Amino acid sequence: MAIAVLDVGKTNAKAILLDEAGDVLAQRSRPCAVLPRPPYPQLDLDGTWAWAVSALGELAALAPVDSIVPVAHGAAGVLMAGDRPALPPLDYEHPGPEETACELEGLLDPFLLTASPVLPLGMCLGAQLLWQQRSFPDAFARASEFLLLPQYWAWRLSGVKATEVTSLGAHTHLWRPGERQFSGLVERCGWAGLFSPLRRAWESLGPVTPELVAATGLPPDCRVLAGIHDSNASWLPHLVAREPPFTVLSTGTWVIAMAAGAALDRLDPAADMLANVDARGDPVPTARFMGGRELELVAGADGLHAEATPTDVMAVIATGAMALPAFVAGSGPFLGRRGEIVGGPGPEPARRAGLGALYAALVVDAMLDRLGGDGPIVVEGGFQRNAAFCGLLAALRPGQSVHATCDPSGTARGAWLLARWNDRPRWPNSLPAPCSPWQVEGLAPYRARWRALSAGDRPA
Question: In this model, does residue 21 exceed pLDDT 90?
Answer without folding.
Answer: no
